[in-house]
Amino acid sequence: MRLEEWLVADSRLDEQQYEIYMSEPGNSMVIAGNAGSGKTVLAVLRAKRVSNLGSFVLLVFNKALKAMLEFGFMAQQLSADATIYAWAWENRGMDLSGLVFFPITKNGENVQYLSSHIYLQKGDRIEVYKKSDHVRKSHYAALHAAYLRDFKTLTPEEIRSREAEITRFVSVDFADWIGNAYWQTYGRRTCFYELEKILSPQELRLTDSTKFESLSSAILFVPFKFKKDFMILDEAQDFQAEQIESLRSDFTKSIVFFGDTSQKLSTSGTSINAIAKTMACEYVELQKNYRVTKEIARLAEYMLPDDERTLVRRCNKDWGNALPVVKKCKSLDEQIDFILGIIKAEDLTDVAILVPTNKMVEIVVKKMNEKGMDSQYRYNRPLGGFTEALNDFMSGELGGGYYNQIDNLNFQSTLPCVLTYHSSKGTQFETVFIPFANDSMHFNGIKKNAFYVAMTRASRELYLTYEDKLTSAFAPVPVSCYRSV
User: Fold this and answer.
1) Is 160 domain-assigned?
2) Where in the numbering of this chain does the UvrD-like helicase C-terminal domain appear (predicted)?
3) pLDDT in tens, 99-136
């Protein structure tokens, strides 16, 4: 994904987008818009605009979008810590961005983890945290309770001082099923570490694998959330009504929601119109789509109910007769060969391969690797049911969850990106391939929305492949909307 093309400067916004960007920061709003209308870009620019006016946070519904937005925030010289995965905000507190390292000692193949310190690398900054034996969760909870009790009477300087005192202490959590040794050494949300010092990579070489081990699923977090002056929600349609309502107590000045009901992937999500009514705030609908071509939009619209088919008339670009391509294949290998052949022949560097499930991501990545092509990806690898999980834990093999999170995403890389439809939300790529478009996938209801989301990630070319029989979701689609090969 080319971030330089996605994250446009405020000087390149259209008149309506610029009016939203320059709107009164203290006004709460709901911004609706089709795929490619610039919602996520406006969310980042909104964060930039309010960053000098007070504290803020941008909540997102999935982890892949959070990873992408961290790059966007850094490009705007904003702290990546201000992008928060919504589940974490509700259940854990404020996650800190960066890669976590653990100190180790090695004796042959045996590795011993040392609980004395944890290290967090953020670019050229290394935060060193020392285990605190005197801080317990009850002590931390008392600090936070006092902060909430006194909040309305505190000056801005006193608020910052209180928050700085609390955020010196962090705890550790893990996003997936981890080795039992981690549990025994660090616990999970039970031990506290205090910021001891800040070093540079020259002062501490975390790349020394004999002394340190990184774990991509490890997360340092401040166990409580603070009130923010400004809140921003992207992909708001996937939040539950109860979640939306609960946010009233989390901000002091304004909240802005960005979303598109047609892209709702959660069965418990809510409509953008309903959010505007619930929060009693201004509703604005973006009028133009800058990503999807008319040819792709014409096909994608058939995945939506008749009253939601507004994408074509809002398209702001047209690539002529570049119809989406649909190809029938005899096998998975033929689908992958077709995809890789086009990537190589056209020397494509901004590519996504989008599939319905985590298992299919793993299959595609493995097949691509076997055929000599590297990729970037994110998926969850399940580790069986509760019985299997408990047996693994008791045997000391694994412990702490039901899946492994496999993630090497780097949105600045030119490698093909393999994601589920759900994880692709908010992203865009010049060329998108959608394999497994088979009738057996049963694209209906909320899954049809997901199919629509996948199609509308493409800004230039769209290819779909299938075996046996094309998905019945194509039944109402005129053959003039795509090219069969």
Assistant:
1) yes
2) 417-465
3) 999 999 988 888 899 999 999 999 889 999 999 877 67
Q: Are residues 189 and 64 in the same domain?
A: no
**Does the pLDDT of residue 399 top 60, yes or no?**
no
282 vs 356: CA distance, rounded Å: 35
Q: Within this chain, do residues 147 and 58 fall inside the same structural domain, yes or no? A: no
pLDDT in tens, 148-174: 888 888 888 888 888 888 888 899 998
Residue 4: pLDDT band (50, 70, 90) is low
Together in a domain, 301 and 252: no
Residue in the block written with tokens 């966007």: 72
Q: Is residue 2 part of a domain?
A: no
Give the orientation angle of helix 137-150 with respect to helix 156-167, to 10 degrees.
170
Dihedral, 255, 259, 261, 265 alpha carbons, nearest 10: -110
How many C-beta atoms surround the C-beta of residue 265 within 10 A? 20
pLDDT value for 183:
75
* Contacts by residues 307-315 (CB-CB < 8 Å, ≥ 24 positions apart): 308/261, 308/262, 310/34, 311/34, 311/35, 311/456, 314/34, 314/37, 314/287, 314/288, 314/289, 315/289
CATH number at residue 434: 3.40.50.300
- What are the two backbone dihedrals, phi and then psi, of residue 2, each rounded to the nearest 5 degrees? -90, 100
Asked if 424 and 363 sit in the same domain, the reply is yes
Q: Tell whether 316 and 465 lie within a shared domain.
A: yes
Structural contact between residues 336 and 364, judged by C-beta atoms closer than 8 angstroms: yes
Q: How many domains does the chain have?
A: 3
